Input
Amino acid sequence: MIVGHSEYVAADSLWLDTIPAHWRMGRLDHVARAWPSNVDKHSVAGEPPVRLCNYTDVYKNASIVQGMVFMAATAPPEQIERFRIAVGDTLLTKDSETADDIGVPAYVEYEAEDLICGYHLSIVRPIPGAVEPKFLYWALSAGPTTGQWTVLASGVTRVGIRAGDLAKPALALPPMDEQRAIAEYLDREIARIDTLIEEQQRLIEMFRERRQAVIDASFSTLGEPSVQLRRYIKFLTSGSRGWGDYYADQGERFLRIGNLPRANLQIRGDIQLVDLPAAVTEGSRTMLREGDLLFSITAYLGSVAVIDGDWVGAYVSQHVALCRLERDRVDPRFIGWFMLTTTGQDQLNEGAAGGTKMQLALDDIRGLRVPTAPIEQQRRIASHLDRQTAKIDALVAETERFIELARERRAALITAAVTGQIDVREMV
Output
C-alpha cells in the first residue's frame, strides 16, 4: 500500500499547496538549462548533413531512442554544436494551436554527433548533481508543470512558450536519492499502465475488424453489386451554399458534414441552428424526410447516414448529398449498410479520385452499384446489422472508457509521485 509522507509544509506556490517537509521548491532554471531551437528543415549546399529530431518525434513519443527515423537536413557547425541533443535531455514542444497542448516532453535515450533538435522544440538539459535527469522528465510531464506552461503561453493564432519563460516553472524537488527512487518507480509503473493501454487498443482494433467482417459477411451471399443506385432514386440533391451566414442560437436544425457518422448510420454531434430570412425559399428542397439517405461528398468520404424521426425537418449543407429512395423497392438502411462494406467504401473513394480535390458529384452517387434482394430480406439484413454492430460498438465504448480511466490513473500517479503526495521510497 502506498502512503503519503509523515510531515508536510506549505509549498508557497500557486501550483502546489504542500510538499513533504524534507523537500524544497525551486524554479526550473535552478536545476537545468533550457533553450529553444531555431534550426529549420532546409538543406543548404556546403553545410554539414544532420538529422533533425522534430516536433512530431517528440509529440508522438515518450522517448527519443535509437532506431527512430529522423529527417535529413543540413545545419551550420555552430547550430550543430548548440542544438545537438544528449542522453538525459528532455525535449519539449514549445508551441501549438492551443495553450493546453504545449510543453509535451520526450526523454532523450539516444544521442549522435549528427542528431540535433529541430524548430518548434526546446532543450531542457539537467545541471549535473542538481537534479536526476529522469526525475526531471517526469516532473515536466506532471499536471502542475503543464498547467504552468498553459498560463505562460502567449500568441494568437499559434501560442508558444517564449524563451524567457522556459526558466519560470516551479518544481517540487526532493533529495537526489529520492528523485532516483521516484524515477525508478514511475518508469516501472507507467510502463505497466502503458502496456495495459496498448493491449486495450489492440482489442479495439480486433473489435473493429470483427465489426467490418460482420458487415461484409451480411452481403456476401448476394453476389456482386449489379444495379446502379439511380434505379431506386426518386430525388437527389445537395445543400445550398452560403448557409453559414444564417447560423443562429435559435431556428431550424442544420445538418453539417461533421454530423455524418463514420461507422454506422446514425447522425451524431452538435446540432447547428439556422435562422432563415423570409426571402430564402430554397430550403424545402433540402429539408429532410424519414428514411432519407445521406452521403458526405466533399470530406470524410465514405460517411453515410439514414434519417430517423429525430432529424426529420432539418436541412443539409452543401457538403452533403440527400438521396431519397423508392422505399417500396429498397430499404435505405440496406443501402446504407452496404455502403459501409469494404466494396461500398471502395466505390465511394474511387468515385472521388482523380481530381485535385477529393469530392463526389451527384452523378457519382447515381452510378454507385448496389446488390439486389427482396425487400423483406433487405430489412432483415439491415436489422441484423443494427443489432450486431450495436453489440460490438458497446464493447468498443467500454474498452475506450477503460483506456480513458487508465490514462487518468497514469496522469494522477505521475503528479502524486513528483509532488510528494505519495512516498514511493519503499516501493523500489
